[in-house]
Amino acid sequence: MRVVVVGGTGNVGSRVIPALAREHAIDEIVGVSRRKPDVDMEKVTWFEVDLATSSLESTIEGADVVIDLAWKIQPSRDESALRRTNLDGTARLLDAVRHCRIPSFVYASSVGTYAPDHEGRASSDPVCRDESWSTSGITTSVYSRQKARVERLLDDVERSHPQLRIVRLRTALVFQEHAASEISRYFLGPLLPTRLLGRRRLPVVPGGDHLRLQAVHAADAADAYVAAALSDVHGAYNIAAEDIVSSADLADVFEARRLTVPPRVLRVGAAVSYSLRLQPTSPGWVDLALQVPMMDTAAARRDLGWSPSHSAIDSLGELLDGFAIGAGTNTPPLTPERTMLPFPP
Prior knowledge:
Blueprint: E1 2-6, H1 13-21, E2 28-33, E3 44-48, H2 57-60, E4 65-68, H3 79-99, E5 104-110, H4 118-122, E6 128-129, H5 142-160, E7 165-171, E8 173-175, H6 180-188, H7 194-198, E9 204-207, E10 212-213, E11 215-217, H8 218-230, E12 235-239, E13 245-246, H9 247-254, E14 257-260, H10 263-275, H11 283-291, E15 294-295, H12 298-303, H13 312-325
Parallel strand pairs: 1-2, 1-4, 2-3, 4-5, 5-7, 6-15, 7-12, 8-11, 9-14
Antiparallel strand pairs: 10-13
Helix pairs in contact: 1-8, 3-5, 10-11
């Protein structure tokens, strides 16, 4: 098999490519990234391609599977720049897949593609939704809107090209130690002392039933991509660890007191600090965190034979350990920075 991984140097891609290389059925792996990494691996050839501007036909020609992990999160204030990669670039890649008659396409979707689930989240025992939940997104989140638009694009391609096997993996938050520097740059900015988070000492954490999250370790997410690439399944699959992390769990992790903070106050705080350029996370990310459904992963376990090896709380702990030491690895998105540069304007 020949497998092409577009966006192979990020949080998930850095785990997917080594996992593919361990598979005897896979003879050749093509890693595609905007900046070529300083990585030498058996079976892997790297190509430097910008999905926003470049054609990919010559790169993916002859592939059995194309895995699309490419997605841009910053600059968050320039939606058109995000669109050129996330929407136009994905459409360009799909055109290349169809032109080259690639038989299988695996796409990195997200819990962020789902519509709000206020009722399910409000329950004291949260309701987990399966893949039939609406993928209309959260309208106040650029990330969610764009993920939902790609899902509609995939719907159109499936209708017009039924011979193309499309798999959509809708992952929860993806954590690992080596992603610490990238996550810090994208979401926390230079003013928040991430090493303080790494020491797991905070005075308070926001409380309330509205604060719940799901996560998956990057290695477990990679296993799901490998299973999707090697199988004959198609359709959407939720990917998350078994446990749901509550505000009480976070308070235990940080040895902190829970402080009940209404969602509206959290959003206002994010909006003000974002507008003042004190941190890089727009209020749409708060809406996303507080509204997306909890995901049922039974289909992935049944059809992909997938099961996570790490809990969500342990994956979070590993990320915090990464914050403590400024962890990263030798690919451009994950390279640790000794001096935190200002986040994009």
